[in-house]
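So, who can interpret the following?
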Amino acid sequence: MSETSDSQSIGTIDPAYIRLIRDLMAAHDTPHRSLAEKTGISKSRLGRILHQTPQKRLSMTVDELEAILDALGTNILKAFLRTEALRDLDPSDHARYESVLNLVGDIVKDLGQELVKTLENMNGIDGTEPQPHWVGILRNGWIEDIAKAVAFVMGRRTVITQRDELWR
């Protein structure tokens, strides 16, 4: 990645995203030098982009953010979901939700395309039907379905664990 990318500058990035990047670097045991090699961003530029002091940070480009996140095993969508979902939680609770937020990211990534395919098969939807107040209804239905699926899996896991304990 060149130092003078044509990519759009993000400008001042929310400190929560810098914390996420630093957390991912620590979790993957990835020092600046290794991240620089993986991303093609110079070590000195990475240091300035990820500086601990917000006033000393340089703006990063969208391409740089994507490269950094990709090198750390994630993407912009998952970073957004994680940062926004965990914003008000104590950092010690974050690890409990990592896997579920990664699953949500994988679901959401293809959700738009799958929804368009489904609506195309319904014939007749012209784009005027969806209304802003549907957001709450759809979100609540989605969360309810996910909670039911998680409860089902947890119930199956309990039954399997109990069965295995009987045979010991």
Notes: The first strand starts at residue 9 and ends at 11. The domain at 9-86 is CATH 1.10.260 (434 Repressor (Amino-terminal Domain)).
